[in-house]
Amino acid sequence: QVQLVESGGGLVQAGDSLRLSCAASGLTFSRSDMAWFRQAPGKEREFVASISWSGGSTRYSDSVKGRFTISRDNAKKTVYLQMNSLKPEDTAVYYCARSRLSWNIQAALTYDYWGQGTQVTVSS
User: Fold this and answer.
1) Residue closest to 50 by CA, chosen among 98, 117, 113
2) Cβ partners under 8 Å of residue 30, min gap 6
3) Mean per-residue pLDDT for 90-116?
4) Tens digits of per-residue pLDDT, 63-76?
């Protein structure tokens, strides 16, 4: 049974930092491209960042580029999202997901396993 469990969310002020973690089990994590998505109230789920199975390739949405960093530790079966210079518009539930196809594809439909999400709230 595949499980993705996110943690690290919380309530912070604008300009603060948070690091999200996603622990995986039940899949061959070291051969899985992974990504982070987020969904704000009343909005569609949107791509945030992705990383290849080796960690050698990454991709970011324009809204987080330069502020967020995705990384992974295959020995720990964990993917991370370091979020710096947080803004109120970053407020959302953040999900990690496993890609069926490629880290280079942003469409949520191409991701087959999802975590339950962790809430990030940024106050102004």
Assistant:
1) 98
2) 53, 74, 77
3) 95
4) 999 999 999 999 99
